[in-house]
Amino acid sequence: MGYVAVRGGEAAITEAIRTLELLRTAGAADPLGVDQIRDQLRLLVDRVMAEGGLHDPQLAALAVKQAFGDPLEASFILRAHRSHLPRLGETAAHRGDDLRVVRRISSAFKEIPGGQVLGPSTDYLQRLFRRELIDESPEAFKSVVKDWFKDLPDDAVPATFPKVLDLLRAEGLLDDQPAGTEAVDITRSTLAFPIPRPARLAHMARGETGGLLAIAYSTMRGYGYLHPTVAELRVGWLPVRLPHPLTGEPVEAGEVLITECEIIATHEAHQGSDGPPRLSLGYGACFGHQETKAIAMAMCDRAMVSGEQRGARHPAEDAEFVVCHIDGIEAMGFCSHYKLPHYVTFQSDLENLRTSRAKMQAAP
Fold first, then answer.
1. Distance separating alpha carbons of residues 43 and 50, to the nearest angstrom
2. Are 279 and 267 spatial neighbours (Cβ–Cβ below 8 Å)?
3. Which helix (H) or strand (E) segment is 250 a member of?
4. Tens digit of each residue's pLDDT (9 = 90 or more) over 143-173
5. E strand or H helix at 319
6. Is 186 helix (H, G, I), strand (E, B) or coil?
7. Angle CA(90)–CA(81)–CA(205) in degrees, nearest 5?
8. How far apart are CA 25 and CA 15, in angstroms?
């Protein structure tokens, strides 16, 4: 078999990019607006913001449009932009108690302080096509918001809700594992193991949803069997407070939509003491409305804490394995590099293979 070198170089790449743009614009539909993506494909935009590590719905929507809807490619674009942004300051630690809640559920207790708030979720949908959306009219589209506000009850939603876990803490049933007081900037710190829990949580917060889910799923399927209970899952707007440049006092600079999940696992002996058994905690939080990711993150956190205490017995308990395999952009880059020229190495492999076959055929 002969091998022919590809000619063209820069000109060929330019034409490939032009053809890609043709793929985006071909068809009879009108251009998809960035505002439409931001407002109507919210869950996709939220995922891109989380994995890109930057809370900017407008830029995330632009990245989705530019990447043809590929969430990994869109996250890559957003993170590349994030990498050259200036660092303006550092906030103090924020608490989920401050969330302006739009959704709040618990599978641990039927009645929780403040009540369950179902909010917006796909959990309660029948997975059937709504064919009326194919030719949805602007009038029908706008009437949804109008009807929703018309039927809005007079009872005001509380500004904040108490934590479900506080009930268990009050009884001494929870084995809290502190995350640490010092925040870790994973974009400026070299990855060296062992890494502290704040760094693990930061890596998972911008990890790829499917990767996190796969590792968490392994713990459900029997590798270090873990069947957690969702103590509380919150989706809401978190006020971001920055220190005032003159007074140093915290000032609210804006708010970001986040999902926070706290899970409690089956009881086990209290680690590091001869005390009675307690429930163990797993924690997850990420940008946007991403419930599956937050739960998977909390499960992986719980598994890694166990691995840290007693030694890793399976992959999900190994912090090095988890952290090194959940970054979708890193994984995509390594996978995509196989498309780059490997002519020299492959020719060497072929030569070795041909030589070995020739020797085997020549042997008696």
1. 11
2. yes
3. strand 250-268
4. 888 888 877 776 667 778 888 998 888 888 8
5. helix 319-325
6. coil
7. 55
8. 15
Separation of alpha carbons 261 and 282, rounded Å: 8
Beta strand residue intervals within 85-185, DSSP E:
100-105, 174-175
Angle at 304 between CA 301 and CA 308, to 5 degrees: 135
Q: How far apart are CA 100 and CA 236, in angstroms?
A: 5
Per DSSP, the three-state class of 236 is strand
> Which residues does 35 contact at the CB level (< 8 Å), separation at least 6?
61
Strand partners, 230: 263
Tens digit of each residue's pLDDT (9 = 90 or more) over 62-91: 999 999 999 999 999 999 999 999 887 788
Q: Which helix (H) or strand (E) holds 345?
A: helix 343-362
* pLDDT grade for 4, boundaries at 50, 70 and 90: very low
Q: In whole angstroms, how large is the CA radius of gyration of the chain?
A: 25
One-character DSSP codes across 101-114: EEEEE-SS-SS-TT
Q: How far apart are the first and last CA of the chain?
A: 28
CB 194 within 8 A of CB 67: no
Q: DSSP 3-state assignment of 268?
A: strand
61 or 279, greater pLDDT: 61
Q: What is the number of other CB atoms lying within 10 angstroms of the CB of residue 99?
A: 24
Q: Count of alpha carbons within 13 Å of 211, Cβ hemisphere only? A: 21
DSSP tag of 284: E
**Edge-to-edge, what's the strand order for the sheet holding 278-287?**
100-105, 229-243, 250-268, 278-287, 174-175
Residue type, 282: G
